[in-house]
Amino acid sequence: MKAIRVHAYGGPEVLCLDEIEVGAPGPGQALVRHEAIGVNFIDVYHRTGLYPSPTGLPFVLGCEGAGVVEAVGEGVSEVKPGDRVAYAGPIGAYAEARLVTASRLVPLPDGIDARTAAAAMLNGMTAQYLLRQTFRVEEGHTILIHAAAGGVGLIAGQWAQHLGATVIGTAGGPEKCALALRNGYDHVIDYRTENFAERVREITGGKGCDVVYDSIGRDTFPASLDCLKPRGLFVSFGNASGPVEGVNLGILSQKGSLYATRPTLYAYINTRDELLATAGDLFDVIDRSIVDIAVNQTFALGEAGAAHRALESRATTGSTLLLP
Fold this sequence. Notes:
Layout: E1 2-6, E2 15-19, E3 29-39, H1 41-48, E4 59-60, E5 64-72, E6 84-88, E7 97-101, E8 106-107, H2 114-134, E9 142-145, H3 151-163, E10 166-171, H4 174-181, E11 187-190, H5 196-203, E12 209-214, E13 228-236, H6 250-254, E14 259-261, H7 265-268, H8 272-287, E15 295-300, H9 304-312, E16 319-323
Parallel strand pairs: 9-10, 9-12, 10-11, 12-13, 13-14, 15-16
Antiparallel strand pairs: 1-2, 1-4, 3-5, 3-7, 3-16, 5-6, 6-8
Helix pairs in contact: 2-3, 2-8
């Protein structure tokens, strides 16, 4: 079967469409035939080597997919052949089919189709842990979300609005700003033409935000800290513009006794109970139409390089899928 593999770290040109063989599932494993595969910025980090592949080179890229279980190995009780499932986490998703540890698979409710699931699992569960666990957003909070028109941003904006927060976002260009405003944001700042830290201070009457969610990294630091209230929380959960480096922790004191954290999804879904609870919360808000999952770009599996170019050039909005 076909899969996208990386033989050497680098740009989108290193993504190779290869023929590989997938064996029968071993103990604890399930064979999943993909119907849709999520494309996320963490895939770029793996492709470039910023996050080295845990399996070495070459490797199949991708951390998110949805499809149907075709076979299971010995001792598997979590799923059975014919089950519709999705997952986020184990690398190796850019393929027509793959083996997955069965305990990492989440059965899909009847109302969630494969494309929605593949677009929602990583971004949606990220939004869940950010808004409900890293900082529990409640009515009356004021929050700032960078990349408001991106996959996590569109989901988080809708969800945070439902929770009663005042939601401020940043996006690049009028079209992306307008899209964010249609998806839960009370205010959207065009970072291309406006100083977002100054605008946040204006919007909040000088008070600042309770929490800033930052997936951009280098380009938005340390200005993100200037958007916070005293004792506010800075949540760095991505590096779209490059990593934040060389930080003197004293800056947190200087800017108001701030808190800072660098969480990852996998620390929040480490156990199966945590995984099912996080996914269940996500499926609930989708099912109740609190959150709409926007699949705004689709590419064939062999067009993974084009998908990465679109993602890295910030030409995408919402979620991006590969269709095998």
